[in-house]
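The protein record passed on below.

***
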Amino acid sequence: MAAALGIGLVALLGGDDDSPTTASPTSPAASSPPADSSSSRARAHALAERVAMAPEDWGPGYTKGDPYERDPAGEYEVGQDCKGFEQAARSGTLASVSRTVNSTGSHLPSTTEVRVFADAETAQAFVESSEDTTRRCPTQQSGELRWSSVRQAAAPDVTGLDQVMAEEGTQTADAAGTRTDYPYVLYTGRTGDTVVSVLAYETRADVAALGPQARDVLQKLQQRVESARASARP
């Protein structure tokens, strides 16, 4: 499971995280405070909170997950042994918010995450580290949780993003060690210094709807970032 949104996986599923001339949280002007200043962090956090999706943003039939919100959300790292662990967010992370919802139909979770970094380079490095994990660990575990057939997938057709990556696989055991068979997709996109992700699970019977739904959510996250940036401009 790639770094993006992995933090939510550990707690869920049976478980117990070029500048324009106007200043904004994601593209500060020369007169703006330093990227890691308290005011920059406050603006970044406001953006992340506005973008991460609540149940009503998904549509009818969704409720808050347990846990619902992680703020700040740490990073989920996968070691060379393909075992996952939680760690603090990397240096240069200004804000990180994740929210999890459950479908009243399947009762499986879906998570959106927003990370705002001090610069686009740090955001790009975050996405690239997620891609590296996906490539090198087709089988992963974290405690009793297990995933198999982890692989890169075709990137979804989403406009307005500088980078897009896609991962898919199957959860084969939950946090209690009980066998499962839940396909998932993890779509991650970067726009400047902001990374948005959606992680969604589905039953095998309804797997055909998984990719299209996650793609629509990633597009919505991109649009929410643009809207939040626009409203933050003077």
